[in-house]
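Summary of Year 1 activities. Much of the first year was spent building the evaluation harness for sequence design. The harness presents a backbone, in tokenized form, and records the residue chosen at every position. We chose the following record to illustrate the format because it has been used consistently in internal testing since the harness was completed.
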């Protein structure tokens, strides 16, 4: 057999071996599964209140997520924070709610505005199910 043919076969065999190992690695990586695909994020919340100027948008954000190895969802969030509340809303009553994918609103809690932000407990609510927040500030 000519030397050129033997070298060609060695190159082809080496290339197939590299491709095979690469494919096996890719197949092993493809078998890794992630059981949680969620994300926690929030944004601006429009609020109509006599004490809140329409030019000042109240923002909403989740607390820092915490890890739980015993939960079916490994990352949980305890509270939602509404910030950028005008000082003139201090001592007014607020109510917070969230909306789920089906369109239903669920009340989160009630309290008194004591500064420029309020933090509301999510309780056992899975934050991934929340589609929208609402905040009502009144006297």
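For this record, the design step produced the sequence shown next.
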């Amino acid at each position: 057999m000519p030397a050129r043919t033997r070298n060609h076969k060695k190159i082809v065999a080496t290339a197939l071996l590299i491709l095979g190992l690469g494919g096996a690695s890719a197949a092993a990586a493809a078998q890794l599964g992630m059981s949680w695909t969620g994300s926690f994020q929030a944004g601006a919340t429009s609020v109509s209140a006599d004490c809140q100027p329409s030019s000042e948008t109240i923002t909403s954000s989740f607390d820092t997520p915490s890890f739980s190895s015993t939960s079916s969802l490994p990352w949980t969030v305890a509270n939602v924070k509404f910030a950028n509340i005008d000082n003139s809303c201090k001592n007014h009553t607020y109510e917070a709610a969230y909306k789920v994918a089906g369109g239903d609103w669920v009340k989160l809690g009630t309290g008194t505005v004591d500064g420029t932000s309020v933090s509301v407990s999510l309780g056992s609510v899975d934050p991934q199910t929340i589609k929208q927040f609402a905040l009502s500030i009144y006297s």
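The longest helix spans residues 3-30. Quantitative recovery figures across the full test set are reported in Table 2.
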